[in-house]
Design brief:
- It is a single chain.
- The chain is mainly α and 645 residues long.
- Among the domains are: 296 residues, no CATH class; 142 residues, no CATH class.
- It is built from 28 helices and six strands.
- The strands form three sheets. A two-stranded antiparallel sheet has the order 1-2. A two-stranded antiparallel ribbon has the order 3-4. Strands 5-6 form a two-stranded antiparallel ribbon.
- Helix 2 packs parallel to helix 5, helix 4 runs antiparallel to helix 5 and helix 21 packs parallel to helix 24.
- The longest helix is centred in the first third of the chain and has 27 residues.
- It is globular.
- The N and C termini lie far apart (66 Å).
- The C terminus is likely disordered.
Length: 645
Amino acid sequence: MAVDVGRIIQCIKQGDQNSVQTQLDRYNTEYSQCFFFDVEEKERRKQRELEEFRRNKVREYIPDSDSDLGSDNDEDSDLMLRRRLASALMSFIRTQLQPGVLRVCLRTLRILSRDRLALAPFITDSAILTLARLGGISTLPIPGNEEEEGMEEKEQWGSACGSTSSQSKACSTDTRHHMREVIIETRGERRESYRDDGIHSVLARGKRDVRGERDEEGDEWYDDGEVWRKEAMKALCNVIYNSQRAQERANALKLLPGLSDKLKDSIRSAAPPSGQFYDLRLLFLLTALRPELRKQLQQARGVSMLTALLEQCLEVHWAEDYEVAANPTSPPISRDAAQRAIEILKILFNITYSTHRQEPDEEDASLYRHLAAVLRHCLLLTCEEEDLVDELQGHTVNLLSALPLQCLDVLLSVRLSEGSKESSGVNMDCVHSLLMFMEKRLNRGQKLKEKLTPVLNLLTESCRAHRETRRYLRQQILPPLREVGLRPEQGDTLRNKLVRLMTHVDTDLKNCAAELLFVLCKENVGRFVKYTGYGNAAGLLAARGLLSGRGPSSQPQYSSDSDSDTEEYRQAKDKINLVTGRVEEQQPDPMEGMTEEEKEREAFRLISLFNRLSSTGSGGPAGEDPQQAPDVSLMPERRWTSDRR
C-alpha cells in the first residue's frame, strides 16, 4: 500500500505528532532505498523509449502525446509533493517536538535531501541553520522563519538544480579524485556511482552500505538526541553536496568556523561523540567544493587541529619527538576509528596539497614533521577489515606526497627494533610498507593511474633525497641480474611489473614508473638500459635528451656504491641484445651457402641502394622542416613482428 504524502502533510499542519510519527515511519520504510531521477536521466529514458518505438516500428513516436507524457506528469506531481513535504517538515522541526518524532522527521528529510530537484526548501538560510544547530553546531545564529528569507521559488529551483560543472572547476585535480569516491549517505541508503558520462546512476533497491547497516543496528544503543544529531548532519551533507547555492550560503553563514569549534570541543572531551564521522564528512565536503574554505581552514590552524583529531582517533602515544610509541599487543583499529581517520586524511590533503614545493618556515616545518610522524604510524597499522587497511594506507600516501619533502626525514629517524627492516643502520619499516603497498596495487591492475601515481612519485622523491631509501629499494626492486634469457618485462618480480608500466598507454603512469627505475639506477644511462632494455628505456631517454648515452651536466650526485654483476650476467653480457634486454636465440647466417661471387654481387647491390638513398636525401637524419618529411602515402606498408617495438 502506497504512502499518502498528502495525508502526511495534513497531519503536520494539524500538529498531530503521533500520527506524523506513524505516517513517517511508513514513509521511511518505503523509501529508505529510493533515489530519484535527475533531469539528465529522464531525458535519456525518453530517448531510449523513442529508439525502442522506431526499432519496433509499432507506431510513430509523438513526444507531445498525452499517453507518452502521463508518466512524466506523474513524476512532476510526485516531485511537487516531495517539495511540499520537505517544506512542511522544515517548519515542523522548529516547533517543540517529542524526541522520537524529531528523529523520524529528520530521517525523512535526509531521504528527501537526496533529490536534487526537490532541494528548494533545504537551501534557505533558515533551513541550513536549523539542520546545523540540530546537528550539534551550536555557535551559529538562531534560524528565523522561511517566510522572512524573501527567496523566490524560481530562484530556489535554479539554485537547487545548479550545474555541477562550476563545482568541478573550483576543485583541484587531486581533490576531484577524492570527490569521485565520496559516499554522501554514509548511513548506507545511498551509494554514489558514476557512469562514463559522469552522471549519477540510480541505486537499485536493496543495496546497502556496510556502515549504514551497522549504524542502523547500533541506533538503539544511543539516546534520541544522539540519533537525531546524526540524522541532521547526514541531511546537511546531502544538501551541501547537491546544491551550489547551499555551499555559498554555508560559507556566508560561517558554517566552517562553527564546525571547527565543535571538533575542537571533541578533542578536549574524554571520548569523541559517536556522530563525529558526519562532522568530518561535512568538513571534507566544504573544503573539497569551496577553494576559499580550504584556505580559510588552513589559516585557522586547521592542520594542527586535524592532526590532534587524528592522534585522538588512533590513540597515539609518543615515545619522543617525532616518534610514535609502537605497541605490538595493541588490537587492530576498529572500523569506526578507521573511517574517521580516513576522513581526516582527506581533509588534510585538501588543505595541504599545494605545500609540496613550498619552503616551510620553522614553525610549519615542525608542524608537518609532527604530522608525518603520525602518518608513519598510519602506514604500519592494522585494521579489523582488510579493505580498510588499503584505503587508510592509500589516503596516507596521498597526504605524504603533498607534504614538503624535507619534512619527511622523520619517516627514517625511528630507532631500530627487533625485526625491523634496515639499510645502513637506518630503520626501513616505513619504506618497506610503502613498497608492499605499491606491489599490492600493481597486482590489482585496476585504476592504475589513480592508485599508483602518488606512491610512485613519493618513492622517487624519497630516493633522490635519502641515500638509504634508494639503496634499500634498489635491493628490493633491482637486485643483481641473474635471469638473462627473459625480457625485462617478462616475469612476476617488481622489476618486471614496473618495466611493463614503462610502455603503458597512460603517459603520466609510464613516466612515473620509468622515473623511479631511472633514479634507482642513479640516473646512469648504461645501468638503466641494462635493467630495462633499450626499447623500454627509449621514451624516458629521448624526453631527457639522453639517447646518446651521456647524462646532463646537472645530474644529481649519487653515492659511489658499485653495481656488481653476477656470474650469469658476466658470461652472457656480450650476447645480450641491448634493445630487448635479453639473450636472443642464434639467428641463421643469411650468407650461408653463398659463393664468393654471390656475396660480392650482394655487397655491390647494397652499396648501390645506399648511394641511391644518399642521392635522394631519404637516408639523412630527420629534420624539423615539414617540407623535408617524406610522403607517408607513398611508402609501402610495414609489417611489424611481435618482437619489434
